[in-house]
Structure prediction request, 315 residues.
Amino acid sequence: MYDTDKFIWLQGREVWMFAMLYNQLEKRREWLDAALHGAEFLKKYGHDGNYDFYFSLTREGKPLVHPYNIFSNTFACMAFAQLAKATGNAEYADIARKVFDRILARRSNPKGVWNKTVAGTRPMKDFALPMIICNMSLEIEDIINDPALINKTIEECKKEVLEVFYRPELGCMVENCAPDGSLVDSFEGRKINPGHDLEALWFLMDIGVRQGDKSLIEKAVSISHSVIERGWDKEYGGIFYFMDRKGYPTQELEWDQKLWWVARIHLVAFQRYGVSRMVRLSQPPGRGAASPQGWKMERLFPRTQRTFPMLEDVG
Prediction:
């Protein structure tokens, strides 16, 4: 241990992970206890009283950074929803609903009073929020118990991902764009994050399974191909962390790193493709070079095995 500060993203993910394992893998008491321990800490110290969750806390729970980051809310929401399923605890379900309401209320201005940019000079909206709300909506729909709201939220976010941030002429998504959906010629406006794209496409495949929408699944698969083609390092292999849509140098000095989570995401995305076709759409996944399975076997999987052997079982 080299630091004791507690970041809400990680606390929320910890609660979600142990509750999910308890719900879906095995009813181990130690997993449930770990989730409960984390949730009680989050309930007592994690938010400002209005269910906006801080970014980080001291070890004992004193707030360090204001709740400027809406993703603290998204991970807390999913955590309490998953734990409510594990325990049947109405209080945890109620917290998940309240946090979900706060996310929707903040969606058009996520940082609110903590936004450091000057309003009106170069307004932009980011891809990450509709992406994660797609996933969150699937996670919590049975806790929210409002099908109309969930369906409306999913359709709005799906439209944002596919019709605003996805740019067919680029073969990928942009991380930021103007409020009207137009491209912005700046570091932030030109930023591409292939790992984020693949994560969103995995979520869209899950939505396609939920809706029985074969065309959505196939579209997500097709875009996955183009994202990997664009993001693939043709000299050394692997997927770049960040790229510039015009090919300029990026603001991020770590742009050419090959991160483990990006490797994991592409394996999960193609695993989702196979499951969605075989289990829900009654069609076997393709095996040709143009199929995700071909991509996985011929290029992605061998390199991931060599570079990140701990991820071998994910695919």
Observations:
- The domain at 119-315 is CATH 1.50.10.10 (Glycosyltransferase).
